[in-house]
Amino acid sequence: MNFKEYRKKIATKSLTKYVLVLKNRETLEDKLSITLTPLNLILLLSGIFVLFAFIILFLFTRTPLREYAYRSQNETFYKNEFLKMNNLKDSLMLKIENIEKERQNLLNILSGNDSIYQNVPLTDTANVSLDFEADKISEDEAKFREEYEKTSQNLAEISPFELKTFFPPLKGFITDTFNTETNHFAIDIASAKNTAIKSIGNGTVIATDWTPENGNIIIIQHSDNVISVYKHSSAILKKSGSYVSAGEPIALVGTTGELSSGYHLHFEMWKNGTPVNPKDFIIF
User: Fold this and answer.
1) In this model, does residue 133 exceed pLDDT 80?
2) Is 46 exposed, middle or buried (0-12, 13-18, 19+ CB in 10 A)?
3) Residue 90 CB contacts under 8 Å (≥ 6 apart), including other chains
4) Domain map (residue ranges) of the chain
5) Which end of the chain is more exposed for a tag (fewer CB within 10 A), N or C?
6) CB neighbours (10 Å) of residue 44?
């Protein structure tokens, strides 16, 4: 038998029809009859197999059974996610501690206490000996010194804050001045939208915030327990903890907050927890 005859024989057998009959066992009555060929049977079984494989694949990819199928991979995934969440938790806790530290620092300044950032070493005068013999001076010199002390102010009594000058935060028109009678402890300076607001001196940003009344706020701590406050800005350019130099842009002019009626800067200066008039220290 050659190949052609063998192939023809196989084709003939695959197309041979068979009848599958289901009978009633007691009456032998035909209940169901199905005509099949070997080829149809193969196709039917193949279809059932494919359907079964699809169902299994669906169960192990789209249902909770996938947890059991990919258990080792899931354990690695969840372990990595746990480590990420743990690191994020540590980062958030650190930020919360920094915010609490800045809040406490601001409360100290507003209460007139020393800043927690100001760690200036003080001279230990406990062991300084004051036992010395004063130089002998002439009678004329003694008289001159006495008259000078009565008519002149000793420069050593002038605080560094009184001698300090600050950089103007913004060039514009002053629309409202410092007035203790109206509880307006600031100067309002009108200017164009998004004009750069600058730091009045070297310092550290101790707070950046937003409130419904004042909008965007940035607060900077300077030396000698001086803080400057800038309100109603459209954007804050610095983050808490950043060091800024005098004249460095820190925010942009805006009109954020319910208390703002136009594009301007609400600028405050505080010394030892007490508001001071900025015009006494800045030439606007």
Assistant:
1) no
2) exposed
3) none
4) 3-62, 163-280
5) N
6) 11
**b/e 73-89 (16+ beta carbons within 10 angstroms → b):** eeeeeeeeeeeeeeeee
DSSP assignment of 161-202 equals: HHH-----S--SEEEE--BTTTTB-SEEEE--TTPEEE-SSS
pTM confidence score: 0.48
> Which residues, other chains included, contact 65 with Cβ-Cβ below 8 Å and sequence gap of 6+?
59
Give the tens place of pLDDT for each residue, 232-272: 999 999 999 999 999 999 999 999 999 998 999 999 999 98
Helix, strand, coil fractions of the chain, as percent rounded to 5: 35, 25, 40
| Phi and psi, residue 241, nearest 5° | 95, -10
Determine whether domain 163-280 maps to CATH 2.40.50.1020. Answer: no
Residue 208, burial from CB neighbour count under 10 angstroms (0-12, 13-18, 19+): buried
Q: What's the DSSP call for residue 157?
A: G
The predicted structure's pLDDT at residue 204: 95
- If you ran DSSP here, which 8-state letter would residue 134 be given? P
pLDDT of residue 124: 47
Sign of CA dihedral 256, 208, 210, 165: negative
Q: Which of 231, 278, 275, 248 is nearest to 109 (CA)?
A: 275
Q: Which H helix or E strand runs over 236?
A: strand 235-236
92 burial (CB, 10 Å; 0-12 / 13-18 / 19+) is: exposed
Tens of pLDDT, residue by residue over 12-57, are: 777 778 787 888 888 888 788 888 788 788 888 899 999 999 998 8
Tell me, rounded to whole angstroms, the distance of Cα 99 from its chain centroid. Answer: 11
